[in-house]
Design brief:
The chain is an alpha/beta fold. 47% of the residues lie in helices and 12% in strands.
Amino acid sequence: MNYSINIYLDYFGLRERPFNLVPDPEFLFWSPAHRRAFAMLEYGIVTSAPITLITGDVGAGKTTLLHHLLNSLGNDLQVGLISNAHGTRDELLRWVLQALDQECPSSAGYVELFGTFEQFLIAEYAEGRRVVLVFDEAQNLNRESLEELRMFTNINSNKDVLLQLVLVGQPELRDVVHQADLTQFAQRVAASFHLSALDAVTVRDYIDHRLQIAGATTELFSPKASNAIYTATKGVPRLINQLCDLSLLYAYTDDRKMVTATVVQQVLDDGVFFGGGTTSVAPDNYIFTPRSLK
């Protein structure tokens, strides 16, 4: 398979895979929604918002935006990134201390760990730095953990901001925060945005953007193919990447210099694209013949 992928890169004149599933800030596509989401992240940081909340569907590009933000922050911030944190409040505090490169002995209790955390915040503040805790996949935090995070923000006093929280997660996180028993938490959210899927026009621009970054000099996806990909993926970037990658491989294998809607349909009919099912997007009049059988 690696051999086939390398050949399809040469076949289409590409330097690298344009639709890799691994988040890559170099391929970041600034749709209007992504620009607003990033602006809200920056707004939350600059205005010292106690809590910034960004949500979006799986594969919408939240983590890529987050990495872009982390790469752009200045030296006046000390950042701790916590991915997929879960467990009790004691375990949450250990996640936080580890993210900040602070010791948290297994024998230490909650009071001792919290004292370590508080002293670290004070020391950073004395050096002119604020601490920002970033939680990716924050939908996995339970109510107890969210309430504990709210209590963390109580360390801030008046205009003295020692700690900020950035929570990034799936839509259910927003639903949880809106529950009545988390009203005090919601009141601390000073910046928030929900990152929606791409529309059909933006999907076309997204595909072209990633191809250009990868070195494409000619049109590789027909307009109807882009529409077919939008229909099958519902505009979710991660699914777009997966379906486009498979479509390029199919087009190469069948000696086609352009991905058409028929090629996309064949990928769907063969059941190799698991993300979007078997949506019908093109006439069923295409016979796929592997290159090796020609």
